[in-house]
Design goal:
Blueprint lengths: L1 E13 L12 E13 L11 H13 L19 H16 L4 E11 L2 E5 L2
Antiparallel strand pairs: 1-2, 2-3, 3-4
Helix pairs in contact: 1-2
The structure holds ligand LPXRUNBV and zinc ion.
Length: 122
């Protein structure tokens, strides 16, 4: 089994809901997003899946979040857009785009700052 990772980012505004403290107020982050996938087999080029494909599919998805107010978007209308919930949303949304017989999204890690991140995997 091979494990591959790409790293990208998006910028957005949010506020935590049902939270008491300054993070309940509108503020923003440059979230760094790490996508880890597994691949069972390599193609003739020796690739599990092309990093270009991983990055472009991830960026297409992140484009729907980029420079948005996350709380107003469908995935976060009823759940707080915490890093945990963002990582879970990206895990399943990206899995729909990338998972196949060979490739599986294994983990999404979302860094809210250089010192704090949340990951989701099954
Ligand atoms: N488990 C989580 N905890 C917190 C999350 C989260 O998504 N998951 N999010 C926040 C807020 O988004 C907040 O913006 C982060 O605040 P904070 O950790 O205080 O970040 P700072 O950069 O301001 O760090 P300081 O150490 O306080 O300067 C909060 N918690
Ligand atoms: Zn925040």
């Amino acid at each position: 089994m091979y494990k591959l990772k790409v790293i990208t980012s998006f910028a957005a505004a949010h506020n935590l809901t049902h939270y008491q403290g300054e993070c309940e107020n509108l503020h923003g982050h440059n979230w760094r997003v790490e996508v880890t996938v597994s691949a069972k087999e390599l193609d003739k080029s020796g690739l599990g899946v092309d990093f270009k494909v991983l990055k472009s599919e991830t960026n297409l998805l992140l484009k729907t979040l980029d420079h948005k107010y996350l709380n107003e978007l469908k995935p976060f209308l009823e759940i707080s857009p915490s890093s945990e919930n963002i990582s879970r949303y990206l895990y399943y949304a990206l899995g729909e785009r990338l998972n196949n017989n060979n490739v599986k999204v294994e983990m999404i890690t979302v860094w809210e700052s250089d010192a704090a991140c949340a990951s989701y995997c099954e």
